[in-house]
Design a protein that fits this description.
alpha+beta, Glutamine Phosphoribosylpyrophosphate, subunit 1, domain 1, 6-stranded antiparallel β-sheet, 5-stranded antiparallel β-sheet, globular
Length: about 210
């Protein structure tokens, strides 16, 4: 286990919020290696297609490799079938990759937790894809990472069915700020991404380390 202790990890707080007019995905920007802050500008919300994005928590190398494999397979499928891959197909493929990885390499397991959101026609879908490969479709909200306990406290109290994306952004920021105050592995800044009828948009990208250098 000591060999794995220094693997770069995103201590992390990520949230996904279902809104009546879209989805909000958000995450902090700190990556850690043990107690060392290895990166203050880690990207934890990744665009997969024009209408699908994921947040990552866990081992950075695992998450980055899985995302590359996911994108490559989506592109290959689009070329061979000449069809757009659906959100559910992407979610199922991603959960399958994680399931197979953690069992094939059980001595050094893959540890990556994804929250996936996407637009499919006029519908929006949100999935929690756990490090064991389990897949759960969410109809309200989800959080991952070491700061998720604090984030869930805010989400459970403040989330309301039918909230707008604008309100979802505010709730995501409030959830992240609660985690950043108490979870030492989360911090340095945050990214907020929306998925709406217009596609994916990175609406907020905040670096909280700038004040420390002044």
């Amino acid at each position: 286990m000591e060999e794995n202790a220094n693997i770069l990890k995103t201590g992390t707080t990520t949230v996904g919020i279902m809104c009546k007019d879209g989805i909000v995905l958000a995450a902090d920007k700190r990556a850690t290696a043990g107690n060392f802050i290895a990166d203050n500008k880690a990207k934890k919300v990744h665009e997969i297609t024009d209408d699908i994005a994921v947040t990552i928590a866990g081992s950075v190398s695992d998450a980055q490799l899985i995302i590359r494999v996911l994108k490559a397979n989506i592109n290959l499928k689009s070329i061979t079938t000449r069809k757009t891959t659906s959100v559910k197909e992407v979610a199922n493929f991603l959960s399958g990759v994680i399931y197979n990885s953690i069992r094939q390499f059980s001595a050094i397991p893959s540890v990556a937790h994804f929250v996936l959101g996407g637009k499919e026609g006029d519908r929006f879908l949100l999935f929690d894809i756990y490090p064991d490969g389990s897949l759960t479709e969410m109809d309200d909200f989800v959080s991952s990472g070491s700061g998720s306990v604090m984030a869930y406290g805010v989400l459970e109290n403040d989330y309301k069915k039918g909230l707008t994306v604008a309100d979802g952004i505010k709730l995501a920021l409030k959830s992240l700020n609660a985690a950043l105050r108490r979870d030492s592995a989360s911090g340095s800044g945050y990214d907020v991404v929306t998925i709406t009828s217009s596609g994916i948009k990175r609406v907020i990208e905040k670096d909280l380390t700038q004040d420390l250098t002044k």
